[in-house]
Amino acid sequence: MERLKNAGLVFCLFVVLLVVFSSYFRANEVGALCGALAGTPLLVHVFNRLAPTRRRTEAAATVTPETQPSAAAAAQRPEQVFVLRLEGPNGRP
């Protein structure tokens, strides 16, 4: 049911973009169609990156004893360290 809802929302977004490109930007039919076809996946991707689904964040936050990583596995993972340094115009710090 959720996939059907998402597909309907994507279709509605496509129709809205088609109307926006044809009326506000005064594009011809082919231009409005190409704009809506290109803009729909782009806006869906941006939305998914900015607002991830609640299901993924809840699943990542829920840790049970079965899913909790062991101390040995945690010790084997390398720690990520980021070093930022500023250099002058001559390449020296």
Please provide a written account of the structure.
By secondary structure, this protein is mainly alpha-helical. It has one domain. The chain is built from four helices and no strands. α1 (2-23) crosses α2 (29-50). The chain is flat and about 55 Å long. It starts with a helix and ends in a 17-residue tail after the last helix.
Looking at this protein, list some descriptive labels.
about 90 residues, mainly alpha, 4 helices, about 0% strand, flat
Categorize the overall geometry.
Answer: flat
Oligomeric state: single chain
Helix count, per DSSP? 4
Following the backbone from N to C, one meets helices and strands in this order, namely HHHH
Taking Cα atoms only, what radius of gyration do you get, to the nearest Å?
23 Å
Percentage of residues assigned to helices: 55-70%
Average pLDDT confidence is: 80
Number of domains: 1
Strand segment tally: 0
| Unreliable segments of 5+ consecutive residues | none
